[in-house]
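Section handout 9: paired folding examples.
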Amino acid sequence: MADATAQPVSEKYEEIVSRLGKVVERLEGGGLSLEESIAAFEEGIRLARAGAAKLEEAERKVEVLLEGDRTAPFSGQEK
């Protein structure tokens, strides 16, 4: 059980979302045993967390870029 949550997800955000969609389809489709359902749920949680981390990373990068743009016009005008 710990193995499924310990594996890092190093894919692009779009790949994570695609894989997460497939997991959701499997879970919603039914026909899985309890053990298979739990394993799929664990994978889904891991992928959801990885996707959220990618989004947070992108947001931080955008904030840094925007901060640079806000201060750039004033840097050469100060005396």
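Moving on to protein 2 of 2.
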Amino acid sequence: MQKLAIEYLQKTKDRFPEKTALIDEGQGITFSELWKSSLALAYWINTEFQITNQPISVNLLKSIDAVIALLGIQLSGNIYVPLNIETPGKEKVLAVLGSDLVLEHVAGEFRLGGKVFANIHDADMENSVLEKLSARKPDDPLYIIFTSGTTGTPKGVTISNASVIDYIDWAIKTYSVTEAEIIGSQAPLFFDNSVLDLYLTFARGCTLHLLSRDVLRFPAEFGTYISTHRINFIFFVPSLLGNLVALKIFKDYDLSCLKKILFAGEAMPLNTLKLLKSGFPSALLSNLYGPTETTVDAIYWIFGEDIEKLEEVPLGNPCANHRVLFLDEQEKQVTVEDEIAEICIAGPGVALGYWKDAETTRTAFIASPESEKQDEVIYKTGDLGYRSSKDGLIYMTGRKDNQFKHYGYRIEAGEIENALNQFEFILQSCVLYDCEKKRIQAFYTADKLASPPPFRNLLSGILPQYMIPHSFHRLEKFPVTPNGKIDREALRKTTMRPNNATR
């Protein structure tokens, strides 16, 4: 039985030693080369530092070298921590970790703890590394990914080997993943969506293209790259897909090679989904849901031919071996269908907790309220949703921390966004609240829209008056974070031109 996630690559390099594993900026590396390079790095870490089960940060942009770093660290029996190299605040992360070991790649060389990597030639290197690694257990941490949450304080979500193995084995079966997959990787390494791309590649012998920022930023670059390299599998954030769909990229380039399109990280707007289906009628389209604290995803849905009949986009049903519970404000279980409550996740994908933060861990990771499951830890996501009586599927309505109070009314921004997304011309929307001016602002991208619509009249039959935004701003595309999600802070700082706002 498989114990560690690294065993995926260990087996695959024997099956496909000369097959290209990773491609980055036109440069490739085979599975055999990837294993040897990672092994050499692990041996050096073991020789120079002699540590086990300790966090080692990786301060590299997504690249072949960065992937070697992640693999080398776990082969050394330690825990990898991918950092966002372009964002300040790494000192806070290192303080939380309690470790200043940061692996970097400078002038063509790996450097760690003030030492320069030396490729030590030892005939017994592999046996030495694997012997030390044999002491690792499935429940030992594999990686730590940091999330600031709503407070801005870094929280290190700690994920075990066993959780990743459960998730990847489920994904392989659910999406029929084989060595024929050519994956286009959008997610940066510090975003947990990258876990699916990487470990599917290691497990099945796929070829993974590490898409550059230019490819993701410019539609022409994206269309050309996907069609030229015949990418057939992508796992993207909806905002990024929404921007590409809004620009009708599938009409300008031959993207018929795309056969499996997965999306997660935020809500997929219904009209973006419909346009995606029209552009890729034969592709598998799947919505996935899961916070970082639940090993990438815990709920999923694969859409059939009935997308046009949908009124909302479902999250779907739990992934294998997982359960979804709904809890009220008193952490009591809600079992009534259609009643909105907090979505909570149970199962092997639930994280080990926050690194060295027992207090915050106890708040978010609680004992199951189920009488027969009280020894099990579940994760409170902070997301609100319900199970529908119409189709038995799970739907999300918004976030607890996206609530705001407007003239005494407690309002959920996601509820307004859901109302806007019902209109056929809306591709994507985002609602923000200006606390100082007490104004609700709506931002949107649109399709087939010659002039600004009468939003207030349209929404008056759907929302109460106090929830209708004061202004509506049309965008060509949404600004996105490095993760590919809507950048709400960038929207807050944007001064909209008068002709872009409809009141």
